[in-house]
Amino acid sequence: MRELPILLIGYWDESLTNLAMNLHTPKVIVIDNDQHLHTDYDLFFESYLDVTLAGLFTKSKEAMKKLDILQPDIIFIEILESSTHEIAVIQKLKLMNNKTKIIVLSVSKDIELIKKSFRSGAVGYITKPVSQRTLYNALHSIRCQGAFISNDVAQQVVSMFKRKSFPLFSERENQVIDFLQQGATYKYIAEKLYVTSSAINFHIQNIYLKLNVNSKSEALLKLAELENS
């Protein structure tokens, strides 16, 4: 009978320890080049009590110096259009702490940039301007589901899979057409399809022949007519 209180104490100590671990409030840092938005971030995180804003930065270099001290769980980082620097930063951040959740902020909706972001280790992608509702949804999704993309990006991805396939053309020709409609060069198409430029030229000549046209602009107009028919 005397052992019972000891067992109870041990039980409650373990429960309190687990509870304390579960009550860990994730720390967030934001790296956004636009300093005018920092006040908005401050106001949002003051009202969102499930996480703590540990730092606001305009440059990734400044943030990197304080990572050991701040030890963030979630990082929002802005990527400028056609910039490779921040992509490299994401890779470095993941090497420093693989458990850190990284969410990209960008004005760009370029699908290649989005792919590079996720391949580098990001778990979220939000297009700017960012609303408080989007920030809330992103944080909730990252914590509960592990990933997030803003609605406009999701719609863009879905539309890619909904692209019309023309029965007039072969599977490879349809792939070439997809790239042509995105404004890709022959060299770029060849690289993406892992074939030579001469092979792409061969497919394009076949496409022109089937459409009865003599140029890329004529082909795109004809394809637009077929899509809408």
What would you say the CATH architecture of the largest domain is?
3-Layer(aba) Sandwich
Report the biggest beta sheet as strand number plus sense, adding barrel if it closes: 6 strands, parallel
CATH class descriptor of the largest domain: Alpha Beta
Main β-sheet, spatial strand arrangement: 2-1-3-4-5-6
- Helix content estimate: 55-70%
Beta-strand level of the residues, as a percent range? 5-15%
Class by SSE composition:
alpha/beta
Average pLDDT? 84
The coarse silhouette is elongated
CATH topology of the largest domain: Rossmann fold
Number of strands: 6
Distance between the termini: 86 Å
- CATH 4th-level superfamily of the largest domain: Response regulator
What is the overall number of helices?
Answer: 12
Q: Would you list the SSEs in sequence order as H and E?
A: HEHEHHEHEHEHEHHHHH
List segments where confidence is low: pLDDT < 50 over at least 5 consecutive residues: 1-21
Our count of domains comes out at: 2
User: What gyration radius follows from the Cα positions, in whole Å?
Assistant: 25 Å
